[in-house]
Write a structure and sequence with these properties.
The structure is a single chain. By secondary structure, the protein is of the alpha/beta class. The chain folds into two domains: 22-143 and 298-313, Aspartate/ornithine carbamoyltransferase (Rossmann fold), CATH 3.40.50; 145-294, Rossmann fold. The chain has twelve helices and nine strands. The strands form two sheets. Strands 7-6-5-8-9 form a five-stranded parallel β-sheet. It has a four-stranded parallel β-sheet with strand order 2-1-3-4, sandwiched between helices. Bound molecules: aspartic acid. The site of aspartic acid has 7 residues, from helix 7. It catalyses: carbamoyl phosphate + L-aspartate = N-carbamoyl-L-aspartate + phosphate + H(+). Pfam families: OTCace, OTCace_N. Catalyzes the condensation of carbamoyl phosphate and aspartate to form carbamoyl aspartate and inorganic phosphate, the committed step in the de novo pyrimidine nucleotide biosynthesis pathway. Residues 165-311 form the Aspartate/ornithine carbamoyltransferase Asp/Orn-binding domain.
């Protein structure tokens, strides 16, 4: 993706982790690690984005991504406005591009875009003005680059920087998951030793997404000895009818329970991007248990988004 890098190799937009150089990715992880205290509100706000206006332009619901981008921007002293498609002229049929152009005309410089269509953020970046930056906060099933980064940071904190020793298992609805795609891009770039992907055949894509991964539908077998289990939400809003027999059946075959988790390495960690369907893809006991890094992921989300905003906009 050349659109997101300028001629000097600097990030201008962040649309995908696919093809992002390892040094660029690691620099963002390092920076997020350095500013963790400011990210968690334990140190003073930074001034790097003083005078910069940023808009969260969301055409799909969000809890974590929108609020953490908002908090990240505020902790860098930016001015932030929230655009919500459900209460704006988008309801009168105004397009995402017209919306962006109008906000650009008001001096907004950074757009954090979430949209149900694959490629929506890239399409906006192509039409954006010279000084405008677009950050993809999730487009359809394509990419969610800041989630990929925060997951990589969370794994790195837990397991160290040498990913070549790690066995990582991604589980569930990979077919509809932009998180899985961005996680896979990050894991490959960081040189992960073994990437396994597990789910019912109806939810595993056959479009090249899983190239180089060990795939299978037997969750118990795939769990053996892994260092990290990355659970995914069943994306019922993006799913045709009938891809899973029933939620009970899905839980019986692919739900992560404490008993199942014992098949993984003793110090294995569990990640989930949220929102969690408790009792479907993961039990309360595991989601809230000692091996779960779910809330650490959320905290890291603020730090990663600060690092991204600072690197692209300051
Ligand atoms: N919050 C993440 C996303 O928007 C994960 C999910 O919804 O399953 O992609």
């Amino acid at each position: 993706m050349t659109l997101q890098l300028d001629s000097d190799g600097h990030l201008r937009h962040l649309l995908t982790l696919e093809g992002l150089p390892k040094e660029t990715l690691c620099r963002l992880l390092d920076r997020a690690g350095q500013i963790r205290d400011a990210a968690l509100g334990r140190a003073h706000k930074r001034n790097s984005l003083l005078g910069t206006t940023i808009c969260t332009l969301f055409f799909e619901p969000s809890t974590r991504t929108r609020s953490s981008f908002h908090i990240a921007a505020q902790r860098l002293s930016a001015d932030v406005i929230n655009f919500d498609a459900s209460t704006s002229s988008a309801r009168k049929g105004e397009t995402a591009l017209d919306t962006l152009k109008n906000l650009e005309a008001m001096g907004v410089r950074g757009f954090i875009v979430r949209h149900p269509e694959d490629g929506a953020a890239e399409a906006l970046a192509m039409q954006a003005g010279e000084g405008t930056t677009v950050i993809n906060a999730g487009d359809g099933r394509s990419a969610h680059p800041t989630q990929g980064l925060l997951d990589a940071l969370t794994l790195r904190q837990a397991k160290g920087a040498d990913f070549s020793k790690l066995k990582v298992l991604i589980v569930g609805d990979v077919k509809h998951s932009r998180v899985a795609r961005s996680d896979l891009h990050a894991l490959r770039t960081l040189g992960t030793g073994e990437i396994r992907v597990c789910g019912p055949a109806s939810l595993l894509p056959d479009d090249g997404t899983l190239e180089g991964c060990a795939t299978g539908d037997d969750f118990d077998a795939m769990l053996e000895g892994v260092d990290a289990v990355m659970m995914l939400r069943l994306q019922r809003e993006r799913m045709e009818e009938g891809l899973v027999a029933s939620l009970d059946d899905y839980h019986a075959r692919y739900g992560l329970t404490a008993g199942r988790l014992r098949r993984a390495a003793g110090d294995a960690v569990v990640l989930h991007p949220g929102p969690i369907n408790r009792g479907v893809e993961i039990t309360d006991e595991v989601a809230d248990g000692p091996q779960s890094l779910v809330l650490r992921q959320v905290s890291n989300g603020v730090a990663i988004r600060m690092a991204v905003l600072e690197s692209l906009l300051s």
